[in-house]
Amino acid sequence: MKSTPKIIFAILAILLISSGVGMLSAYAYTSGIPIPPKLPAPTGLKGINASPNSVQLSWNVVKNATSYTVVRSTSATVGFIKIGTTSTTSFLDTTATPVPNVTGYYYQVAAYNSKLGYGNPAQLLVPTHYYSPPPNPACQQVKTILSSAQYSSTIITKVMADMNCP
Q1: Per-block average pLDDT, block size 10, for the chain (166 residues)?
Q2: Which of 55-94 are b and which e, b meaning 16 or more Cβ less than 10 Å from the residue's Cβ?
Q3: What is the pTM of this model?
Q4: Checking CA distances to 161, which of 19, 38, 97, 137 falls within 20 to 30 Å?
């Protein structure tokens, strides 16, 4: 017969003070209440850039999951925010705007079941590509004209910045 894990409760530790030095003692007992099995992390998590501002995620089904929660961050360890919930094994993030100097977005997907709670998340880095608009074709012409008219580099730089030229 397969044994069922038991929840172990730790009883509040007792602090004994002896000669000004604290000693910590803890006691525990088995309650006999079975621990429900936790949902596993989704496997096969994949992500692709569906457009400059969206990422399509997909993963394999998790048995007993009724929904999946998707979170995102620009860091692998902190700052995750919930961006959605789905009952299917795919999710389209339409708010994945590329950020300058950021490699991409870290996504985590966790299965959920109202009786079992959340499972462990699967994590994936999806590189994003910061889109730089093409340079204004008039930039080089204006720069050439201003340079040939012998304007100072300060004025040329100011005009170029006003025109959003590199």
Answers
A1: 39 29 32 68 93 91 97 94 97 88 90 94 86 68 86 86 76
A2: bbbbbeebeebeebbbbbbeeeeeebeebeeeeebebbbe
A3: 0.59
A4: 97
